[in-house]
Amino acid sequence: MNYWNLRCSTSVFKWKKGGTLSFTDRLKEPSVEGDAFHLTHIFNNLLDNALKYTPHTPTIKMEATEEKDQFIVKITDNGIGMSKDAQKKIFDKFYRVPTGNVHDVKGFGLGLSYVKTMLEAHQGGIQVESEVGRGTTFTITLPKKQ
Fold it and tell me: What CA–CA distance (Å, rounded) separates 48 from 36?
């Protein structure tokens, strides 16, 4: 296992829609023991989804905090949100949140399944809170050491 820096994960993230990405850093020591490749892709996937599912100017907030032996990262967007039913299924392989008759969101429904699998491989986890029309918050937990 290598060490991966949480602060570096947000340093280079650009998009064409405009909008804002704010990062509230409440970490004393931002290094996570884990696979840098997969940890980077976890955060890239969640940020990419926040963009894809926000039809207007995105406002994305990341907040990183820590407790005893774990990091907690929340990613909140102002996108389309999702129903309670969708929230139960989004970590299933090939599940796509229905977006009506609009097919402008590309993907295969594998991203969040991958995110959950890789977080569990790092002894972490992910939870979702969402409201249709108001946005979504993903809360990630990762142990500081494997």
Answer: 18
